[in-house]
Structures are given as structure tokens and as C-alpha cells.
Amino acid sequence: MNTSLSLIPTPPFSPLSDADAAMVSDLSARRRATISVADANAAFRAELITDYIAARRTGVWSDELRLLAEARRYDEANPDDTVSLFDELHAIELFGAQPVEVAA
Q1: How far apart (Å, rounded) are the C-alpha atoms in residues 93 and 40?
Q2: What is the pTM of this model?
Q3: How many CB atoms are closer than 10 A to CB 1?
Q4: Which of 2, 49, 80, 94 matches a 20 to 30 Å C-alpha distance to 39?
């Protein structure tokens, strides 16, 4: 049995990669102060819708079904949302998606 240890130096963790330090880092505190749960939910919804539109363009049914299932799970976890994410994806299926210009 080999009892020698090979010690490989590891780089120090940044506050964002170390959960304990991230709780007290200045950068994490600023992020928590500027991002609300509503913003995170809106970002997740936008990302899922974007992914769904991309999946429809490729025509890969398994990707579309996976995203629909994810939307359903989101809706179950967030019953207070005005419009369900699944319904939004279903509307894209029925009526298509039009590009939207975002004001700067």
C-alpha cells in the first residue's frame, strides 16, 4: 500500500466559490441587496421561454417536453403568479412568438 501523499497546491477560494465566505462577502451582499425573488423568478421565466422558443426552432420534441415539464414544476412551486408559465409556453405553441424590442 502506498502511504505517501501527493500534496497538490490548490488555489485559494474566492468568496463566490466558498459558501461560508459568500454569506459575508461584500459582492454577495451587494447582489442580495439588488436582486429580489421576483427578479430571479422573472429571469428564470424569461430564460425558460427563450429556451422553449429555441427548442421549437430545432424541432426536438424531447427538449420541448422537458421544458414544458419544467414550466409545470415552476407553476406548482409558484401558484401566486398571475399567468402560469405553462400557459405562456402553450400560447407560444398556439400563436407563435413575435420578437419583442426592449427599450434601453
Answers
A1: 25
A2: 0.58
A3: 2
A4: 94
